[in-house]
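Before relying on records like the one below, remember that each one covers exactly one chain. Contacts with other chains, cofactors or solvent are not represented anywhere in the record.
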Amino acid sequence: MVMSSRRLAGAALQVALTALLPLVLPAYYVYKVTTYLLGAVFPEDVAGKVVLITGASSGIGEHLAYEYAKRGAYLALVARREASLREVGDVALGLGSPGVLVLLADVSKPQDCETFINDTIRYFGRLDHLVNNASIRQVCKFEEIEDVKHFRALMDINFWGHVYPTRLAIPHLKRSHGRIVGVTSNSSYIFIGRDTFYNASKAAALSFYDTLRMELGGDIRITEVVPGVVESEITKGKMLTKEGEMKVDQDERDTILGPTPAEPVGDFARTVVRDVCRGARYVFEPRWYMGVYLLRACLPEVLVWNSRLLTVDRVGASITDTLGKCLLDLPGVRRFAQPPSLRSPEIKDR
């Protein structure tokens, strides 16, 4: 009897909330359109402001630095590869940044994070945007892993590497009424097979930023960037293997990306910085991934079935012979889906 009453109460609540939607949605969409138009007409001017970007030596972080540089921002660039980072800094200066500070650090180490935040404040005197971008990927099925401890490094970089700099930057961002830009992934809400720990780390980061936005209110603004398949070292095939080794494995890469087209990183970064300056709370890019997000919310079983079909089930002799990989190998598909940079296994090594 008690269980029946609870079920009836739950059903009644669902009906009541559904009935309220026609009343609430029009006002909500008026608010959304108004804020979008105001942001487009009066975007934030970042010229002369200080932007710190982690994972800035290649890929998404590198090209975000270039877009901020074009808008006249001072840059503090953080990564572990000194030569590559200095090359990015030189290009950013040529594109219009009035000043670049290169900072060698590992975002998974709290002391490194404290050092690069403090060095930025000492050098520039302020911090306006913190862009948490550093990330690594793992590709293998969970049951293939012999020791899960191999992937602590991934969680340290992909989750704690967002938490440590954010905690240390908050006092400075409050003073400048600044912004945190968290680069997560569509893996935070899509069930991508063979990406167990990567998916979990990105979902944790997304939830972290959602909660932090609520706690901070209007003191610090937060933009969550949700990339799809974007040209980078990760989509080139750089990953942690099931043995915990970092290497480039394009065969494994193809098992999960399949024929999904990769967006050129320059186009991606241009859209992201534009929308960040417009005050967007979320940036889904490419935009069509919004449809996948709605599929997750409305028809999750369909998303699970599709992901398993493309990335998990074998259609050949090898464990990497997934349907997605077979589709990619059809004539002309790889040329359409992958920019030339993703077909080469070469990555920066310094």
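The CA atoms of residues 35 and 274 lie 15 Å apart.
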